[in-house]
Amino acid sequence: MTISKEILDELLKGVERPEDLLGDAGLMKELKIKLMERMLGAELTAHLGYEEGESAPPSQPNRRNGTSTKVLRGQDGELPVAIPRDRDSSFEPELVKKGQTRIDGMDDKIIGLYAAGLTVRDIQAHLLDLYGLKVSPDLISRVTDAVLDEVREWQSRALDRMYPIVIFDALRVKIRDADSRTVKNKAVYVALGVTRDGQREVLGLWIAENEGAKFWLSVMNEMKNRGVQDVLIAVVDGLKGFPEAITAAFPDAMVQTCIVHRVRHSLNFCSWKDRKVVAADLRRIYSAPTADLAEAELDAFEEKWAEKYASIAPAWRRAWQEVIPFFGFDPAIRKIIYTTNAIESLNRVIRKSIKTRGSFPTDEAATKLIYLAIRKFEKDGRNVREWFAARNQFAIMFGERFDA
Predict the structure, then answer these.
(1) CA–CA gap between residue 343 and residue 351 (Å, rounded)
(2) Annotated region Disordered: where (predicted)?
(3) Which of 10, 23, 181, 369 has the CB geometry, 3.0–4.6 Å to 19, for a possible disulfide?
(4) What is the DSSP string of 229-283?
């Protein structure tokens, strides 16, 4: 629709300064209010079946009944809009629904600010500074709580029958305990799957105070109940009871310890000045072409560092059964399992969102923010790089299980 020059000239009469157009009492705000009121009037006309100022048809007992003022909040600040009424209160406007107090996607803006890691107080200040809006903490909480319904639907959605790779990882989040009212470091676990077509998909998130075989078995059974029948390779971080829980639910799954976590755990025992050299020597272990050569490199590492860092090599040996499957894979698969770029980038997105929070008042509050971070992560791209070569290797190594 084109607005004629004559109409524009008429509208702009008396507009001499920027604030006359864009200010709180400017033309743009007034125009938006008047257009909304005109559209609402047209909706009521369609509902009643006769134009304003005309007599109602004899068969129409309902009549116009004045207006009520509703203050809407939007990017232009507060907008007082006259909402037309009818006598029997059967009018349900579509433009401004009953109970609606916000427009211009303000809910999405609040959720977006929350997802970026802003606290309720930060969001209040942002909306006041940018839009001149005064919103209560209760309103912000109600808007963000609506995300929980989406979380529940997401957490219970059906999953694929088979995933070539599922990577499990955890991060620690401070959450206030409902009973003791003390802040505890709880583990938030995320399962990141790679589909047959090379798409990254976050399968779920779980918050646990105490991890163990029982907890992990419940996670695996939940995945099975949602449709997962087979996992080809499960990459874990070496927690006690984790491999057993995976194989209890998915007996044919190959459990692979996360090499990145193994290296990081080893470097925790090193002084800063030695870390670079130790990391280079560890690389010789996991870069070896075969398990036998890797074990020889581990022997060499232990001989070199046993006196200074006696605990590193034995830790690798204790986890060796979950390390050696790595050496049976083609470099195309090794690259995906080792680098775990997907899970690392996911963790960066989550940590960026939660870093401004000292602690969360409840598990639900932490879940909301982490889910929104996951949603952002998946929107930024889901394709695994160089998947074509890895897919061919999976098809050869796992045969019917991959094609099922």
Answers:
(1) 12
(2) 51-84
(3) 23
(4) -EEEEEEE---TTHHHHHHHHSTTPEEEE-HHHHHHHHHTTS-HHHHHHHHHHHH
Neighbours of 311 (CB within 10 A): 12
Provide the β-strand partners of residue 185. Answer: 174
Residue in 169, 163, 157, 156 with CA at minimum distance from that of residue 228: 163
Spatial distance between the Cα atoms of 56 and 185, rounded to a whole number of angstroms: 68
Upper half-sphere CA count for residue 35 (Cβ side, 13 Å): 6
Q: Please say whether the beta carbons of 189 and 212 come within 8 A.
A: no
Confidence (pTM): 0.68
Residues 360 and 95: their CA atoms lie apart, in Å, by: 37
Structure tokens at 386: 């160089």
Which residues, 6+ apart, have CB-to-CB distance to 140 below 8 Å?
110, 114, 120, 123, 124
pLDDT (tens digit per residue) in 176-234: 877 777 888 888 888 999 999 988 899 999 988 766 678 888 889 999 999 999 999 88
Q: Is residue 339 pLDDT above 60, yes or no?
A: no
CA distance 86 to 282: 77
pLDDT digits 0-9 by tens, 51-88: 887 888 888 888 888 888 887 776 666 778 888 888 88
Check the CA dihedral 99-104-110-112 and report its sign.
positive
- Write the Ramachandran bin of 353: left for phi over 0, alpha for psi from -120 to 50, otherwise beta: alpha
Rounded Cα gap, residues 118 and 126, in angstroms: 9
Task: Give me the count of residues in the chain.
Answer: 404
**pLDDT confidence of residue 107:** 66
Q: Say which residue, 24 or 138, is predicted with more confidence.
A: 138
Nearest in space to 372 (alpha carbons), one of 113, 102, 104: 113
Q: How confident is the model at residue 381 (pLDDT cuts 50, 70, 90)?
A: low
Rounded distance between C-alpha atoms, residue 185 and residue 342, angstroms: 24
Distances (CA, A) of 221 to 95, 217, 231: 46, 6, 13
